Amino acid sequence: MSMQALNHLVARSIVDPAVLHAFAAGKLDDILADLAFSPGLRASLATAQTGTWAEFAVVAYRTVRAAEAPASRIQLPSPLEGLRPDADRAGREQVA
């Protein structure tokens, strides 16, 4: 969700000069409040120390990317599990 908000912010900066004016004035937090950033992420974006909007966009991308939780991978059992002898299962009866 945060990456979509960042995309929205960058796209809005292209068509809305108020975003660049707020960035230049150091009041970007007012613009960020309108978007779907978490409070912690919004605070770190608002306090990013950059000189230009392009630098801010790069830092914001890295910050948002680091803050997003990676998608959990599906944990499948190893194919070797069925081939190795298991001492715990050796004494139990198995039915086909």
Task: Characterise this structure.
53% of the residues lie in helices and 0% in strands. It is an all-alpha fold.
Topology readout:
Blueprint: H1 2-15, H2 17-25, H3 28-32, H4 39-46, H5 53-67
Helix pairs in contact: 1-2, 1-5
Low-confidence spans: none
Distance between the termini: 48 Å
The biggest beta sheet reads: none
Radius of gyration: 24 Å
Helix tally equals: 5
Q: Looking at the structure, what is the overall shape?
A: rod-shaped
Mean pLDDT over the residues: 84
**Structural class category:** mainly alpha
What is the strand tally? 0
Which series of helices and strands comes N to C? HHHHH
- Name the helicity range: 40-55%
Q: What percentage of the residues does DSSP assign to strands (E)?
A: under 5%
Briefly summarize what is shown.
The chain is an all-alpha fold. The protein is built from 5 helices and no strands. The two termini are 48 Å apart.
List keywords for this structure.
53% helix, mainly alpha, 96 residues
